[in-house]
Design goal:
Distance between the termini: 36 Å
Number of domains: 1
CATH class: Alpha Beta
Number of strands: 5
Strand content: 15-25%
Mean pLDDT: 80
Structural class: alpha+beta
Shape: elongated
Low-confidence stretches: 1-21, 24-51
CATH superfamily: OmpA-like domain
Strand order of the largest sheet: 1-2-5-3-4
Radius of gyration: 18 Å
Largest sheet: 5 strands, mixed
Helix content: 40-55%
Length: 239
């Protein structure tokens, strides 16, 4: 057990120090070779810089081999490149609960919505249309999780507790608005596995300044390997 922990830590350190020079294919092979959700959680926290990323993906409970990790990594590299071409999208690689590469796409809710609203703007619809057509509908074997967030600013005539609850509800409504619009464009509803609002939780920037608040008002979309994709990769048939 101690040896396994040492190997996991050593692998994580290697990935962290060299991560900037590795694509998803390389990382996928290394992580797949290490195997399992436990290693994925460690690597996800370090490389993904986002603890939530480790919860993305339904853990299959068995180690994913090196070859399967490489195949999934290649697929994620292509999806990431396609997402990077979408207007107003910020794209990065993260690690899912299976220790496999996933893609995180962040949309600034300042572009998606007006203040206090969950109604999508025209710019948002254009970006999401591009995202649906060029990424999601091309990669139907990738599962999707949509997460909404707000800053911690209060609502008029509301206590801090009431404001936090309103922000939580607004974040859920915004995540749901993105989900509904994507499915209206032909994205399969079964592909979107979760739509969740987190309100003020998990800020990515300083809420005490306007620039930080703007970054915290966001919608994140995660693309990760479905069970069918993992099985295809393990069988060597993933294209």
């Amino acid at each position: 057990m101690k040896n396994s922990k040492f190997i996991a830590i050593a692998l994580c350190a290697s990935l962290v120090f060299s991560g900037c020079n590795m694509n998803n294919t390389t990382k996928g092979g290394l992580i797949g070779g290490g195997g399992g959700a436990a290693l994925g959680a460690i690597v996800g926290n370090l490389i993904g810089k986002d603890a939530k990323a480790t919860a993305i993906g339904a853990a299959i409970g068995t180690a994913v081999g090196t070859g399967a990790g490489v195949l999934i990594g290649k697929k994620m590299d292509k999806a990431k490149a396609a997402a990077e071409a979408v207007k107003n999208a910020q794209v990065e690689s993260v690690t899912d609960a299976n220790g496999l590469q996933a893609v995180k796409v962040t949309f600034d809710s300042g572009i998606l919505f007006t203040t206090g609203s969950s109604t999508l703007s025209n710019d948002a619809k254009n970006s999401l249309t591009q995202f649906a057509n060029q990424v999601l509908k091309v990669n139907t074997d990738m599962d999707v999780a949509i997460q909404g967030y707000t800053d911690n600013q209060g609502w008029r005539n509301s206590t801090a507790e009431q404001s936090a609850q309103k922000n939580l509800e607004l974040s859920q409504q915004r995540a749901q608005a993105v989900s509904i619009y994507l499915t209206s464009l032909g994205v399969g509803s079964s592909q979107i596995k979760s739509t969740t609002g987190f309100g003020e939780a998990n800020p990515v920037a300083d809420n005490s300044i306007k620039a930080g608040q703007a970054q915290n008002r966001r919608v994140e979309v995660y693309l990760y390997a479905s069970k069918a994709m993992i099985e295809a990769a393990q069988n060597g048939t993933l294209q």
